[in-house]
């Protein structure tokens, strides 16, 4: 199991969209990947949990956390091989850690936490809650958006991860993200 949660090493710049549900991460991930003509890693848990919901009308349980984490990392590692100098991730293992702790009374599989902290990303874009909530089968905390945002921010601070908060409408978020990624590319002297 530990091997399945390991992140592949690479020279590719890795970006992660990070934060509470319904804060525009997927739309931004797709747009950034299109802008940089590269791959983006979807959120594995969406399909996994939607299938569970469709089959049983149940949301995430503790037994789902490790399969979700393995699926996420496997997808990231596969798409990393096809990425064009930058890889955009719609989520990562640390996000799974935050959700696990929030949903299961502070519990997180030690192996998941270990691998989440070993994984490297050049920047986390923490998406703020100043966009409209969009309901679906899986989103279940519309009244806890601020609480969840704080949990995500606390995790970045606690584990000393590099991040920027993205606020405002889509265009403002996109422009700020592009400016930051362009600087990372320039600093690394990676030509696109």
From TrEMBL:
Domain NadR/Ttd14 AAA: 14-173
InterPro entries for this protein: NAD_biosynth-regulator, NadR/Ttd14_AAA_dom, P-loop_NTPase
UniProt xrefs under Pfam families: AAA_28
Protein name, per record: NadR/Ttd14 AAA domain-containing protein
Native organism taxonomy: Bacteria, Pseudomonadati, Bacteroidota, Flavobacteriia, Flavobacteriales
